[in-house]
What does this fold into?
Amino acid sequence: MEGEGPTMTTHPDLRPVAGRPPVTTHDELCQIGLHLFVNQGFDNTSVDDIALTAGISRRTFFRYYESKADVVWGDFDDALSGLKSNLHAIPRSVPLMDALRQAVVAFNALAPDQVAPHRARMQLILSVPALTARSSIRYAQWRAVIEEFAADRLSLPSDHLIPRSIGHTALGAALAAHEQWLQDESSDLSALLDLAFTALANGFKEVT
It folds into this structure.
């Protein structure tokens, strides 16, 4: 996806940043990877490129990520833990679909300095064929969190049709909101997610 997506100004070349200690966190390594993917293309960026820019060895890189495709997703396991926490912090008195809406909006809330990196991440995920297989795995993990929560609320097995359907439709609503957000840079992701999940909760009855 060379030349597409927002411009990210951090780490403008493949040299280690002078005076900067080697990267030691998932997030920093992710930001470096996103910058390189946006500016020189995902397929044209190697693990060696990322490691060199970060000032670390290949061996150290693989302590954080199994592949360069995983870099796009950042520390996704930690993110999913945050989603679970958001869901279970919502009182059981809140209706199921309203709880999902609140949790997903909170999960995707972005500070101003996170907007460009997240836009770059989603542009890559939704447009680079080489990321499709890894994305399918991540989507399944995200759905599983939603399905387990729905199953618990409904006192059903997590592999029951209803929780599974809720997981798939919730993922569809989240992806649709992200696609709309990428198309319109003036739009607000939280507002789009809120609208999509509200419509989903209402069974699209109020859509005319």
The chain is about 65% helix and 0% strand. The CA atoms of residues 100 and 117 lie 25 Å apart. The two ends are 36 Å apart (CA to CA).
